[in-house]
Amino acid sequence: MSYKVQKTEAEWRAELTPEQYHVMREKGTERAFTGALYHNEDKGVYSCAACGAELFSSEQKYESGSGWPSFWAPHNSDNVAEQSDRSFFMVRTEVHCANCGAHLGHLFNDGPQPTGMRYCINSASLAFEKNGQ
């Protein structure tokens, strides 16, 4: 797949923290309830930590109890892409940044209305900017 932002793995490794690289480039997962943005209740926009593309808004964030920041819809659906993930002997929907390909998390159909969806996203994949900042 071709993305707007193209970098070598060496460039990504130099720009991202070790945890960010593991999550975003190696499709890792941070431990539940440990992410810096899990309990964030400030109003603002969540962007891709790798490329800055706007992904989610605090307006769509909710407490799912899952241990990761959860959203019922993207803020900018053009920047959030999905693909089938058949790892770990199960079928899930992976969510990644459509701008740079960074792994964000997974999508589940057990969220609140109006969409019924839960975008379960790693804090390590996100940068947050408060409204008015």
From TrEMBL:
Pfam families tied to this protein: SelR (PF01641)
The prosthetic group or cofactor this protein requires is: Zn(2+)
- Cofactor: bound how, per the entry note? Binds 1 zinc ion per subunit. The zinc ion is important for the structural integrity of the protein.
Q: Tell me the GO molecular function terms.
A: peptide-methionine (R)-S-oxide reductase activity; zinc ion binding
- Give the catalytic activity: L-methionyl-[protein] + [thioredoxin]-disulfide + H2O = L-methionyl-(R)-S-oxide-[protein] + [thioredoxin]-dithiol
In this protein, the active site sits at C120 (nucleophile)
The entry's Zn(2+)-binding residues are C48, C51, C97, C100
| Family annotation (InterPro entries) | Met_Sox_Rdtase_MsrB, Met_Sox_Rdtase_MsrB_dom, Mss4-like_sf
What UniProt keywords apply to this chain's record, in alphabetical order?
Metal-binding, Oxidoreductase, Zinc
| Transmembrane regions | none
Question: The MsrB domain covers which part of the protein?
Answer: 9-131
| UniProt-listed Enzyme Commission number(s) | 1.8.4.12
Extract one GO BP annotation from the record: response to oxidative stress
User: Can you name a GO cellular component term?
Assistant: cytoplasm
Q: Which HAMAP family match?
A: MsrB
What family does the database annotate? Belongs to the MsrB Met sulfoxide reductase family.
Q: Which NCBIfam families does the UniProt record give? A: peptide-methionine (R)-S-oxide reductase MsrB (TIGR00357)
Kindly provide the name given to this protein in its UniProt entry: Peptide methionine sulfoxide reductase MsrB
Source species, please? Answer: Candidatus Promineifilum breve
Specify the taxonomic lineage.
Bacteria, Bacillati, Chloroflexota, Ardenticatenia, Candidatus Promineifilales
